[in-house]
Amino acid sequence: MVIKRRHWAVAALALLATGCVSTQHAPAAEPTGAPSTSVARARVCAGPAAGPGTAPTGAVTVDPAVVGDLAAKTKSSPPGTTFWLRPGKHRLDPDRYAQVVPKKGNSYIGAPGAVLDGRRTNQYAFGGSAGGVTIRHLTVQRFVAPHNEGVVNHDSADGWVIEHATIKDNSGAGLMAGDRQQVRASCLRGNGQYGMNAYKASGRIGGLVVEGNEIADNNRDDWERRRKGCGCTGGIKFWAVNGADIRGNWVHDNRGTGLWADTNNNDFRIEKNVLEANDGAALIYETSYNAVIRHNTIRRNNWAEGRSYADRGDNFPFATVYLSESGGEPRVRARTDKIEIYRNLLENNWSGITLWENADRFCNSPANTSSGDCTLLVRDTGRCARPGIATAPLYADCRWKTQRVDIHDNRFVLDPSVVECTDKCDRMAVLANYGTYPDWSPYQGERVAEAITSKQRNRWHDNVYVGPWKFVAHDPSRVLDSGQWQGAPYQQDTGSVFRARDGG
């Protein structure tokens, strides 16, 4: 659940190349699929759509002057009731567990200016297990959910729809997610831990739609610093989600990662988003499977975390799109059988795309920070032990693999004067560490580094590079120029264009 990147047991080799990338192997024509324009931002927080000025037919009216009116009327009304919250600040009873517990099919619609305010007293706004709940045109603010818990849909009930809502300035996660949840045209801003935590304690989440939202300035409480290495933050964090469409969102200025899929997620489509100015990576896809990442504008991410690596002398190429032990797997059913990254614009981020595999991270290993989890290919985790793990099929099935990644028709732009860097912000990488532990591991030595680099069908091709890009292959010490990257034995970026600047 937290990325483990560095466990080096090999002596550092001399850098193979420094300075600007070579252009000697560049083809004459620019790949036609490379994007030339950026995606529009979903500006939701500054001007959310207003709700109805009068109560819908048949709706129960909720009065802001009556403390606890919303929870009380929910309790006394039948399932499927629509509630219309008048303009003004609505309050729950002054008890931390005085949340609204909807019934199946309830709808909550806010009038213009309707706010549900937790007053830094109530922990949760909406909870319970009822499915099919709708929340529209309502601001939910100042609730104090504990760490790893959420304010809206606290219990991850299924089939909820959140539209034109503003969920801001809460502790914990502004929003949790259940199966078949839809979050559209909403503002998730300034929450203490996550904008949304897509986690369900029992069962998996599938059919998740996150569309047209603004997800900004989350993790205000800086949990990665308070619990170093917890892997417990992000604009949105996804856990074991089987099928998600993440499109048309503006994910920006979050402290840490913008979008982070962690542990046995599968079948994601991440498209037409603007991911910018997040302190950490724009996107992390970790110990997960099968995704399409396309038509995104990814700009000015990872400046804080990337720079912190460089400032402390860490040579790991932590990039703005980071695939950690994640790849395509045909045996896991999805709309694709690979991870395909194409027609994205990546501009002035701290580094580009890193494909990484920790040789020591597999089922039952002490280095498996997704504690207790195994791959989706092994039901009985106990089988991933010696002697069986050393032979087929467990040798392959007991570890998450970065494989079948296809990176093409993207545009990578880097101006070091904009990023304000002189080194280590210019990397594209495919690598692993030297396997060392546990002592029964069958993956010791350079086996995983050789596999991810040359045997697992990870390919860059037909991309456009503008600026002084470098490339890392096999392990952190092998820093290449474009000629070495395109040449034997790596043979990456066939059909790609390399140039020092636009118009050059």
Automatic annotation (TrEMBL):
| Classification via Gene3D superfamilies | Single-stranded right-handed beta-helix, Pectin lyase-like
Q: Where in the sequence is the signal peptide annotated?
A: 1-28
Q: Which PROSITE patterns match?
A: PROKAR_LIPOPROTEIN (PS51257)
Q: Right handed beta helix domain: which residues? A: 153-313
Please give the superkingdom of this protein's source.
Bacteria
Q: Which organism is it from?
A: Streptomyces monticola
One Pfam family recorded for the sequence: Beta_helix
Keywords, sorted A to Z: Signal
Protein name per the record:
Right-handed parallel beta-helix repeat-containing protein
